[in-house]
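Predict both folds.
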Amino acid sequence: MSKRKRFMLPETEIPTQWYNITAEMKNKPLPMINPQTKEELKAEDLFPLFAEELSRQEVNQTDTWIDIPDEVRDKYKIYRPTPLVRATELEKALDTPAHIYFKNESVSPVGSHKLNSALPQAYYNKVDGTTNITTETGAGQWGTALAFAAKAFGLELAVYMVKISYEQKPYRRSLMQTWGAQVIASPSMSTKAGRKIITDHPNYQGSLGTAISEAIELAMQTENCKYALGSVLNHVSLHQTIIGLEAEKQMEMADEYPDIVIGCFGGGSNFSGISFPFMRHNFTGEKKTRFVAAEPASCPKLTRGEFKYDFGDETGYTPLIPMFTLGHKFTPANIHAGGLRYHGAGSIVSQLLKDGYIEAVDIKQLDSFNAGVLFARTEGIVPAPESNHAIAAAINEALKAKEEGKKKVILFNLSGHGFVDMSAYDQFLAGDLTNHVVSDEDISKFLTEV
């Protein structure tokens, strides 16, 4: 009998609750700190910036399960549940005894997992009576998702898009504008933070930290406006757990359980989403799954950064967050995986890395594209440059299984497709891409400024 390829859940099996991992962590993530008073932030301290329910979710360390509002779940039905797919053709190409599965989040209308958090964030802001929201976006995936979600709930949206991605990925910009968002290349002259950066560094191509600074500044200066973030924060990781909760049911359909769970890593949203629901079984000792975060070698906060309190943005508008960081003024190389070009890691993932529950690997840009091309030629899907990092890590694990002669069950998250990233593939296939590896000197330089 041929191997089953796709594992599909009916619409009725969309989860009704998100999983809040902090409630079950032995060592809770450290709190965010007000940089002026040095006091722990409470939910109400975040109300001026975030929707009230999102602020409460951010600091909730007691409720293991948090209900998904019916209005959000109805919007999830547009694309959820997403397929779990066995990568049988990739297995053949690698001649590995490993069984490789991927959760295909690229089937969402916006082409990535980001809509899982964009919809609830837009909903909760609508409930609060907010009319306008601001955000940042690296590769454009988050901005695209929030543009769709804002339109779905009747909100106006301004997106600060990292300038290098604004230029590299014009069709993501077009998607955001099609759904009604205003898109501004960051750094820009529209904010104090942007003007200072342009004045100091006229040719600066931007970073997520810069774009966050601009989006926060605009939100704080605009009436009835709030800010939304697509990664790093606890409430974003919470919403993304819908990925792993579905995958658990689908792995049961496949009559297998993952030995290794892998996600690419920028700030932590898709990695958290695929891994946290499975990780709760490690907490009880019931399972011994390995969890691998695959980050770019050019922005190695997990593999080479330091754990300390740092700002989430470049200018210093955010609270201080306990994280593995390269320093908030660190400037990543202009790799095409724009969604992974962020200096820090979320506080939950950072604590889990400290406690040994997860591992991290760094992937060079050319290795990631080689993996993405092999995946496209075997499984037929052209992955986003970000997702290529997870694929490269999965391939490495499958080849280790081949060397050891052991069957391993590998699950990774295909966080998005690359159909609007084809200029990156053009450059790769033409031999025009290079690897970028940050030096110890640069890492030390920026960390001393924290």
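Second protein follows, with its predicted structure tokens after the sequence.
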Amino acid sequence: MTPGAYQTTFCFAPDHPSLPGHFPGRPLVAGVLLLEKVAEALRAWRGERLACLWEAKFVAPLHPAETAQLQLTPAGARVRFEVRRGGQLIARGLVEGAADA
């Protein structure tokens, strides 16, 4: 893990309510659920809410019941994120947090 970074793991259960719509018969974890995990991790790590999504790239699917690793790394005032399943990149991007008002 990169010094100063934050890491967590997560897994979406096969009965998650969003899965039947993404995609019937071959469910995938929706990108918005991955971004929700980024927001939760940012709050746990820095006590900040996700204020801005600067970029996001989804490069491989995540299926229900697969365990993924999320890493947040400081990038100046912003935070880079990477979601991986094993060593395979699933998603990456850049977000900005803000303190709650």
